[in-house]
Here is the input.
Amino acid sequence: MRGVLIAGFPYIRERYFATWRHYLRPEDLHFLLPKRWTAKSGKVVFTPPDDERVSTATTLFPHSHFPVIGGLLKGWMPAFPLHLWHMRRSVSLVYACSEPTLLSTLYFSLFTKLLRKKLVLFTWENIPYEQKLRGLSRFIHLAILHLNLLLSDGLICGNPEGELIHRQYTGKPITVIPMNGLDPKFFSRSAVRANYQLPISDIPRDSVVFTYIGAIGYRKGIHLAVRALPEVLKKVPNAYLVIAGSGEYEKGLDAEIAHSGAHERIIRIPWLDGEGVRALLAASDVFLYPSIPYGGWAEQFGYSMAEASLMEVPVIATHSGSIPYVVRHERTGLLVSPDDVGALGDAMARLGADDDLRQRLGKQGRQSVSERFSHRAVGKQFYEFFNRVNRKSPSA
Here is the structure.
């Protein structure tokens, strides 16, 4: 096939873009990314990766909280048709990597088909639309979804639940591939910088360190681990809990810690960069991710769990959303019911007291994630699906 144009805001982040450096034919790829993308209420600014295949465009609506329209126009690139027209002789397929319920995606879709190119869409959605949407919002989003799927030639779902949901809307090719992979070479204990300093030096060397790294939001369930810790300490008296990250639930979490009765065994760390995440995981014995369904949302993948597995740290998480796609119960970690403090505490006590089990689950976790979710594995899956779409459907 000829080239692929990848258009949308997600791949402006280098850790997402890195997967394409492992694509089987990287010379076939072209990118249209935002000139600038803001996140976390403008506190974080991303600029495109330094790559000769990247073109940039002004991108409007950088979040989903605008009055009236919400996130319907998130990531809209008005100049997309001009860029596609310019690339028309070198591109046969467009991969629009924003959700198919957005008007901005429909804009990509309409002009892609007008220029007679194949179209592949992406979604992370893992909750049925009828379950999470109501009234006029459901009507609008489903109408956009149907139009986008009608125009598309294939759909990529970031998790197996998404595939089940969207098969009822289209008979076109669907596959399950996460939006990006991970780097097993970077997330490796042997790659940790010996001189990297973490603010956990007060933890004794013989301790069992339970760690959470991620956004501090109620839906992430880390408050449940705080509640479980006092009982865990009765069975694992050398346990510590390290929580790294920031988010809207920080005050609520701090209140939970203050009233836990175990605050002296809990260490809070601000947001960490990649080096810091790797170093903290290397210093950890168990990774916690007690995510809970909340407000029409459930965990769609959970990259921090996959990173922990690559670092040979066993994971304790919940049977929630798409987590079982990443963490395999009794093989790479332990899964418990969401919002169950007792079950979470039992799992923490079990792993905290069994070093052999931690070692076994950790090694199996690295093998599983390396085989399924490395940059190379994910890039290969994208390549195969793009070729499948090009062979299957004639251009409109």
